[in-house]
Amino acid sequence: ARAAVVIPAAGRGVRLGPGAPKALRTLGGTPMLIHAVRAMAASRHVSLVVLVAPPDGVAEVRSLLDSHSLPERTDFLVVPGGATRQESVRLGLEALPAGSEVVLVHDAARPLVPVETVDAVIEAVRAGAGAVVPALPLADTVKEVEPAEAAGAPEPVVATPVRARLRAVQTPQGFDRAVLTRAHQEVEGEVTDDASMVERLGLGVVTVPGHEEAFKVTRPLDLVLAEAVLARRRR
Ligand code: CTP
Ligand code: MG
Questions:
Q1: Pairing relationship of beta strands 131-137 and 206-209 according to DSSP bridges
Q2: Which tens digit of pLDDT belongs to each residue from 140-159?
Q3: CA 48 to chain centre
Q4: 47, 103, 200, 224: which one has the fewest Cβ atoms less than 10 Å from its Cβ?
Q5: Following CA atoms 10, 15, 16, 21 in sequence, which dihedral angle do they give, to the nearest 10 degrees?
Q6: What pLDDT band is residue 99 in, cutting at 50, 70 and 90?
Q7: Which residue's C-alpha comes closest to atom 8 of ligand 1?
Q8: In chain numbering, where does the site feature Positions MEP for the nucleophilic attack fall (predicted)?
């Protein structure tokens, strides 16, 4: 089975500071979402990419896809997104035609993920996993705190999970389509990734090795890193 990818790209990018919606901002002169699309279409297993655009940016995203070179073996759809990432992913899933049994969800905000990571995720789903996440060990020790109301106020530390057991997870996350569809139909409440919705159904999620270059562009310093990674690739 070939894979379909949903790319949620409908966020504003508040943490990046004022400017265009994050996915439309450029890296090395090319919009972030075009980098993300190319990263997915680089896999010969990917036959369809559904881009979930800012609700007021569907036409702009369509014209960006038309004006950039993309592999011909891959089809593209653009749909309007929602108010939360979760809602945007659900709208992307609803646009999938029958036939794609392996579905990936990939943040437009991770424009530089290498194709090896994409293929590793697809392979693991094909091998029978219902849900797969690329994951990396942490560099920082992580504390659980009692969050303070005021930003910047001291927060009491509650616990320190054993770092060696923790993983930072990335995208693309890969799923058996039926599993992901059910998760988006049945799981309520705030989540920060798709795999956690599958966990809430009581179903298994496994990791494959993630990649440093699959980091998420979230804050201004991440743009500096992304530009440096691109410059290194072009050398
Ligand atoms: N996303 C989306 N629809 C939303 C919110 C987020 O499709 N309503 C997408 C973003 O475009 C991004 C991915 O989800 O590709 C991961 O979200 P995040 O990094 O948080 O991006 P933003 O929500 O845009 O950033 P911020 O939280 O700083 O506003
Ligand atoms: Mg966000």
A1: parallel
A2: 999 999 999 999 999 999 99
A3: 16
A4: 224
A5: 20
A6: confident
A7: 84
A8: 163, 216
pTM attached to this predicted model: 0.98
Domain chopping of the chain, boundaries: 3-137+166-234
Any ligand 1 atom below 6 A from CB of 22: yes
In CATH terms, the superfamily for domain 3-137+166-234 is Spore Coat Polysaccharide Biosynthesis Protein SpsA; Chain A (3.90.550.10)
Percent of the residues in the chain that have a pLDDT greater than 70, as a whole number: 100
Q: 107 CB under 6 A from ligand 1?
A: yes
* Rounded CA separation 182/70 (Å): 31
CA of 11 to the centre of ligand 2 (A): 6
Which ligand does the CA of 15 lie closest to?
1
Q: Which ligand is nearest to the CA of 110?
A: 1
